[in-house]
Amino acid sequence: MSVAHRPTPLASALALLLCAASTAILAPTLDQRVAVLAALAGTGLVAAGGREFAAPVPQGRLWTALGAALVVGAILRGETLADPRHSIELVPGLVGMALVGLGVRPIRQRFARRFVSAGLAVMIVGVSLAGIFEAAGPLRLLGAAAAAVAAWDAAEHGISLGEQLRTDARTRTVELVHTGATSAYGAATVAAALLVYDHGATGLPLSGLVLLLAAAVTLLALLYR
Q1: Structure confidence at residue 161 as a pLDDT band (50, 70, 90)
Q2: Can you give the pLDDT at residue 199?
Q3: Cα–Cα distance measured from residue 36 to residue 94, given in angstroms and rounded to the nearest whole number
Q4: In 10 A of CB 162, how many CB atoms?
Q5: Are the C-beta atoms of 29 and 100 separated by less than 8 Å?
Q6: Exposed end of the chain (fewer CB within 10 Å): N or C?
Q7: What tens digit of pLDDT does each residue of 24-72 get?
Q8: pTM of the complete model
Q9: How confident is the model at residue 7 (pLDDT cuts 50, 70, 90)?
Q10: Taking 90 as the threshold, does the pLDDT of residue 90 lie above it?
Q11: Does residue 53 contact residue 10 with C-beta atoms inside 8 Å?
């Protein structure tokens, strides 16, 4: 029995959607949201390359090139926004989404996890910068951090399942339960962190609290494995 080393499609899609959610939480304006949607569509086209789907899904070099163009265009648009704070809110999330998309694309496995981890790092740095420059409030910062870690966990889970099982294995329930559990824990941790922050029980700046939240959710994801 051969094993196909390909991240599972559902977990890959969930990871990209969570990346988009993390970025959109920090980027509330119309221009920012349009860039997020363009980057999500482009990253999806790039990640779909080399897969087999039951339903017709755009694939091939032309579609991959179009996806890459959408991602690059979204990032360039984010860098040229009139308000620099809007660029700080948007660009790291778009770059992180692109890296995660490369990680869940069927490539050599040693590169897959590196891309996904780099994507998480860029998104967390972006959230921290938004906190440092006061470009977003506590709820948005913590929510974006939790969604970024959940995206990383979903991508890692999809990669692990792709390594261990055949591509036709039925893993949808496992993937949904896993991602749901991580997301629920992240939401609970956000609520707890906001409670601590609002009551002034910590001397940490908000950016430090974001990093602690990301570390807590990452630890749970690692232990859950």
Answers
A1: confident
A2: 65
A3: 7
A4: 25
A5: no
A6: N
A7: 999 889 999 999 999 999 999 988 876 655 555 666 788 889 999 999 9
A8: 0.84
A9: confident
A10: yes
A11: no
* Structure tokens that stand for 127 in this block: 């959230």
Within a 10 A sphere around the Cβ of 34, how many other Cβ atoms?
Answer: 13
- Token pair recorded at residue 189: 């941790």
Two tokens, residue 116: 């996904």
In one letter, which amino acid is 154?
Answer: A
Q: What is the 3-state secondary structure (H, E, C) of the chain?
A: CCCCCCCCHHHHHHHHHHHHHHHHHHCCCHHHHHHHHHHHHHHHHHHCCCCCCCCCCCCCHHHHHHHHHHHHHHHHHHHCCCCHHHHHHHHHHHHHHHHHHHHCCCCCHHHHHHHHHHHHHHHHHHHHHHHHCCCCCHHHHHHHHHHHHHHHHHHHHHHHHHHHCCCCCCCHHHHHHHHHHHHHHHHHHHHHHHHHHHCCCCCCCHHHHHHHHHHHHHHHHHHHC
What is the residue whose two structure tokens read 């949904």? Answer: 176
CA distance 125 to 134: 14
The number of residues in the chain equals 225
Q: Which residue has the tokens 């959408």?
A: 70
| CA separation, residue 82 to residues 20, 29, 32, 185 (Å) | 22, 12, 11, 36
Burial 60-88 (b: 16+ CB within 10 A, else e): eeebbebbbebbeebbebbeebeeeebbb
